[in-house]
Amino acid sequence: MRTIKAQNIIKTVNLLLTSLLVLMAYADLFGQQRKPEETEVWEPVPPVVTPGVGNQPPSDAIVLFDGKNLDAWESVNGGGPAPWMVMDGYVMVKPGSGAIQTKASFGSCQLHLEWKTPIDTAGKHSQERGNSGVFLQSRYEVQVLDNFRNRTYSNGQAASIYKQAIPQVNACLPPGDWQTFDIFYNAPQFDSAGKLIKPAYVTVVQNGILVENHFEIKGNTMYIGNPEYKAHGDLPLQLQDHGNFMAFRNIWVRNIQD
Length: 258
Known about the structure:
This protein is an alpha+beta fold.
């Protein structure tokens, strides 16, 4: 009886040793087949872009306004010279003269600009205070507005995708302070028949704070009615004249890949 038990113990030990050796062999074999170099990708090599120092643009940016002139801009009314006023390193809206747009057209892009609303707010409220807008591809508006202690409808306040998306927070500074927008925009895509195959997306950072996070744009900005898409290609960027003495400076854009 003891002999049988001893034999069974020996068999069990041998079986365990054999299993362990098999597992070690598989582990060694797997280690030989999979090497860290197999998941390393060396091509393509990303191009070098030198970041801007201070408020300077990065090295691959297209400078749209550097405080000197509006050579990169034109009027939306017939394409003549941009009618806004350049002074002291910034450009100011000339109320009633109409919007301005870039001479160049853009698709997906990273856009930086700085803006300032008028100090004089007496008797003005809601949409009357410091109103303008940034139109991506001439049709999708990121709202510019003075919402420092100034309520308006939430989907029409500063950094909203106008009448479409409410910003996550109100990041506005007081009137007269320079504010920043950093906008990351993926343009919509259409097939050859003009059918939408991929909507536009936008992310907005206001004064260093994320306020719109990869929002899916629903279509053209509409003041009345619901947004809808109409097929288009690359189009100019526009700044809106809404009748206020708004100031803009340090405007640059980078073309980006989707």
